[in-house]
Amino acid sequence: MSAAACLAAYAVTIAVTAPRILPRLTRSGIAPRWGVAAWLAAIASAVLASTAFVGVIAAEALTGTSAVEACEHLVQAFARAHSTPAAQSATTAVALAAATAVACAGVRLTRDLANRRRVTFGHARSARMVGRRIAGVDAVVLDAPERAAYCVAGRPHAIVVTSGALKALDHPQLDAVLAHERAHLSGRHPQVLAVVRALADTAPRVSLFTTGAADIARLLEMCADDRAMRTHEPRTLLHGLVALTGAGPVPDSAVGAGDVAVLDRAGRLASPAGRGDRVRNRAQLGAAITLLAAVPLGATALAVAGRMLCITTLL
Fold first, then answer.
1. Tens-digit pLDDT profile for residues 134-157
2. Residue ranges per domain, the chain?
3. Are 278 and 246 in contact (CB under 8 A)?
4. Residue 257 contacts residue 177 (beta carbons within 8 Å)
5. d(Cα 234, Cα 239) in Å, to the nearest integer?
6. Closest Cα partner for 170 from 201, 137, 196, 140?
7. 278 within 8 A of 31, measured Cβ to Cβ
8. What digits encode the pLDDT tens for the residues 73-124?
9. Rounded distance, CA 286 to CA 46, Å?
10. Residue 127: which of 116, 117, 119 has the closest Cα?
């Protein structure tokens, strides 16, 4: 049970500490891509550790003691020497219950992702059927008074803009907003959001998932802003975002330009961070990513090395 205990402890530690540390590093939005990478590293580490925990529990439950496991049992013997049978039974019961909970969460997550994919693809297909094409507008136009522009993943993907948005935006602003939406699709942002939001729905009490999903959505909008600013003036994009603000939320399956953290994004567009702040923030986030990746990789390497040592000793 030592390996399972280590995996569980690591997952719990990440789930508790990451939502408290990462928002402080990503609040400014200075390096949004690094922020997204840090959040995804934390979420992936916790999910993989939990999945490995289930695998270890299943292996210990379904397989007997092998020669390779003998060394592990020697190490565990000292820890169990002074424990009572009741304590050992309670520990095993708790571990099995936790493994069952993780397995059930995996099933719910798979169903949620399948449902989101079905809804998203259906929305993209419906938008292409109902919408119309206008010369000079690289998007599907829907006749609606609301001011909205968003993208939807599908086969093929769809960028949707309403007739109300066309009236509110001039041509340079519209081009900047559409470049923002194309950046979402080329960066596969809808797919990333689908996964993290499905995790948040599956485990709504785990702040790593809920806080992470909200912050990743905000940071991905900033990533798309940065990509759009490569070909458009920041002020033009800023005016386009302001024109689309307050028109109501976009569909759940979509990613909209003027729907998430508009004030934060407007602030960074109007007053870009200095070079020193960018370097400092990237270094902090890089250190966090390295730590999150190094701990599970190091633990895995030690476990493999320990098993190899046991095999060598037994041979």
1. 887 889 999 988 898 999 998 899
2. 1-82+275-315, 132-272
3. no
4. yes
5. 9
6. 137
7. yes
8. 434 543 444 455 665 566 566 666 766 777 788 888 889 899 999 999 998 9
9. 18
10. 119
Backbone angles phi, psi at 259, to 5 degrees: -115, -20
- Give me the residues paired with residue 158 across strands: 152
pTM tops 0.85, yes or no: no
For residue 156, cis peptide bond before it (omega within 30 degrees of 0): yes
- Report in angstroms the alpha-carbon separations of 53 from 39, 47, 285, 297: 21, 10, 27, 15
Report helix, strand or coil for 150: strand
- Distances in Å between the Cα of 266 and the Cα atoms of 92, 141, 242 are 53, 26, 8
Give pairs for 20-28: CB < 8 Å, separation 24+.
21/288, 22/212, 22/215, 22/288, 23/211, 23/215, 25/281, 25/284, 25/285, 25/288, 26/215, 26/219, 26/285, 28/268, 28/273, 28/277, 28/281
Closest CA to 191 of 279, 116, 93: 116
Radius of gyration of the chain (CA): 24
> How crowded is residue 76: how many other Cβ atoms within 10 Å of its Cβ?
15
Q: Which residues contact 73 (CB under 8 A, 6 or more apart)?
A: 65
DSSP E strands, the chain:
140-142, 149-152, 158-162, 255-256
Rounded Cα distance between 280 and 265, Å, is 20
CA distances from 275 to 66, 190, 237, 268 (A): 57, 30, 22, 14
Q: Which residues contact 273 (CB under 8 A, 6 or more apart)?
A: 28, 30, 281
For Cα atoms 4, 8, 11, give the angle at the middle one, nearest 5 degrees. Answer: 140
Give Cα 282 to chain centroid, integer Å: 19
